[in-house]
């Protein structure tokens, strides 16, 4: 996992500088699912893990996140893990999503550390990728949220009364891709 934020590190093993990942500064422009990053992302390096899966670098993780509009937010609810589907928009260096005044919003108010996972799997071919990011949630001030709401290229997964915007500032990325089908012998 690679650190990519100015918030305090989750682990002392995360060593990249908080302002840069592979020399790329993360700004605050929202990206639609089919939109490329305005800042050129660094060239992806190909590394493979012990299972033969390609290890994705932070730039590729961010690029793949921007190709989807729905993922799974993993947070703590009543001291137990909880997983909720969430539509989102990619903000370079983070994710933005809307929620009601519920457990997810309270997690943001507390600044909880959460995980967010997105994937694209072709079950017939046995190919695909997954990206998991970890970071801290924070509510977006209503005055700052107002101009962001129309920019969000997604609709809510479930009906939401009064929407509250939440930002997940990404502190680490973990992505894997199975780009070719393993030999079946």
From TrEMBL:
Annotated organism of origin: Kribbella amoyensis
SUPFAM superfamilies per the UniProt record, alphabetical: FMN-binding split barrel
Pfam families: Pyridox_ox_2
Name the record gives this protein: Pyridoxamine 5'-phosphate oxidase-like protein
Compositional bias of kind Low complexity: 1-16
The organism's taxonomic lineage, starting at the top: Bacteria, Bacillati, Actinomycetota, Actinomycetes, Propionibacteriales
Gene3D superfamilies: Electron Transport, Fmn-binding Protein, Chain A
Segments of this protein annotated with the region Disordered: 1-26
InterPro entries found in the cross-reference section: Pyridox_Oxase-rel (IPR024747), Split_barrel_FMN-bd (IPR012349)
């Amino acid at each position: 996992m690679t650190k990519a934020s100015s918030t305090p590190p989750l682990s002392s093993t995360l060593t990249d500088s908080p302002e840069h990942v592979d020399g790329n500064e993360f700004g605050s422009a929202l990206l639609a699912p089919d939109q490329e990053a305005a800042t050129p992302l660094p060239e992806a390096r190909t590394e493979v893990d012990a299972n033969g899966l390609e290890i994705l670098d932070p730039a590729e993780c961010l690029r793949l996140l921007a190709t989807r509009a729905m993922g799974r937010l993993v947070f703590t609810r009543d001291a137990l893990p909880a997983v909720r589907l969430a539509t989102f928009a990619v903000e370079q260096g983070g994710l933005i999503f809307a929620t009601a005044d519920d457990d997810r919003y309270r997690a943001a108010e507390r600044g909880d550390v959460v995980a967010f996972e997105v994937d694209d799997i072709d079950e017939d071919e046995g190919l695909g990728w997954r990206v998991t990011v970890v970071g801290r949630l924070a509510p977006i001030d209503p005055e700052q949220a107002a101009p962001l709401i129309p920019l969000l290229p997604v609709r809510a997964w479930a009906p939401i009364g009064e929407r509250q915007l939440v930002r997940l500032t990404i502190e680490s990325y973990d992505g894997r891709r199975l780009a070719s089908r393993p030999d079946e012998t």
